[in-house]
Input
Amino acid sequence: MLIRPERPDDDDAIDRLTTAAFEPQSFSNGSEAPIIRRLRASGDLTLSLVAEDDGDVVGHAAFSPVTIDGSHDGWFGLGPISVRLDRQRQGIGRALVAEGLRWLREHGARGCALIGDPAIYGRMGFTGDGPLSYLDLDRAAVQQVTFWGPPPSGELRFAPAFDVEGR
Output
């Protein structure tokens, strides 16, 4: 398996993969593939990684700028992240996250935040239940990993591409 930056000819495969991966999820409203398209179109898709196996895109992770209390200050968000249904639980998502975090750190980012299950992302170094918040979500789901400087504090906001139905 190869983890690499997306290429222009990956757009359709990423779209199909993301749609299929999120379709059976009860928490999904179907906005994930359109979010990636809007991030790409707006120039906010800072890093887009694919996992490729035998020429097929089997995983994808998007990283984009976030603000905390209105300031970007070197923080990025992870998501959406998707893995083909028949390839889940094989370490593909973990490999995508690890490579993305490595790249962000090497490029001077202060840290990365996401909204997700602490049981999953805690194994990847993310922590939650702290002074970082997002809308009215349980703070345990507002995860972050700090590369340098103090941990963030305040209201997390994702790139405008995530604004769906007033969120």
